[in-house]
Specification:
This protein is mainly alpha-helical. It is built from eight helices and five strands; from the N terminus they run αβββββααααααα. The mean pLDDT is 92. The structure holds zinc ion. The site of zinc ion (ZN) has 8 residues, from loops.
């Protein structure tokens, strides 16, 4: 199915460092609405890890920035390798649980292995296989992959094509997904490059 990977404290500490580096790069840019300076405006998160990543539940701060100019104050939330958009589970869990759900097919077995309700993982699988292929991130990713990835086997069909050992493959895929994790940072991919 896939090699087991340790989604432990060290894994999430490394991802936190990547998020901090991405945030520092975005902070050095400017407010996309008024060109004002970007100040720290972090906000709390209460993520879940299911049975797969209890250590991920320690990630209680989403790095974010706010325009410092009076009358603007626009929020700019940088791309993240830890939080996959507004989903309550951490991003790595969204990947692993979806891989499991596609592989075992039986909803009960999936729930037993991941600790996540089957309707949640089924919603994620639909996102991987229907919405994700329509994104610019997928287009850029799949353009480099020959032969092309099987959509019915997403997300494992892209995960297993990432370079390196399983842990590195996870980090690489989370990095590629990071621009999808926020809508308030235009062209987010440029801030993610070179931070992983
Ligand atoms: Zn502004």
């Amino acid at each position: 199915m896939f090699d087991p990977i340790e989604l432990g404290r060290e894994f999430f500490e490394r991802l936190t460092e990547v998020d901090a580096a991405i945030t520092a790069k975005v902070a050095a840019s400017a407010c996309s609405r008024c060109g004002g300076p970007l100040h720290v405006g972090n906000y709390p998160r209460k993520p879940r890890g299911g049975l797969l990543a209890v250590a991920g539940e320690a990630l209680t701060v989403r790095f974010s920035l706010c325009c410092g100019r009076e009358g603007c104050r626009r929020r700019t939330t940088p791309p993240s390798v830890r939080f996959l958009g507004r989903r309550v589970y951490v991003g790595a869990v969204v990947i692993v649980a979806s891989v499991v759900a596609v592989a075992v097919a039986a909803a009960k077995a999936s729930r037993r292995l991941t600790g996540i309700p089957a309707r949640t993982t089924q919603r994620w699988v639909r996102w991987w296989q229907e919405a994700f292929p329509k994104t610019a991130v997928f287009a850029a990713l799949s353009a480099r992959l020959v032969p092309s990835v099987a959509r019915s086997e997403l997300p494992s069909s892209v995960l297993t094509r990432m370079p390196g050992k399983p842990q590195a493959q996870f980090e690489a895929l989370l990095g590629r997904l990071a621009p999808l994790t926020t809508e308030s940072t235009p062209d987010g991919a440029r801030f993610v490059r070179g931070t992983g």
